[in-house]
Amino acid sequence: MAGPTRIEITAVAQVAAGHADPVDDYQGGAESINRMNEVFPLETLRGLSEFSHLEVLWHFHRSSPTDVALHARSPRSTPAWPTTGTFVHRNHRRPNQLAVSHPRLLRADGRDLHVTDFDAVIGTPVFDVAPYFPVMGPQGEVHVPSWVDEMLTQYWATSGQEAK
Question: pTM of the prediction?
Answer without folding.
Answer: 0.87
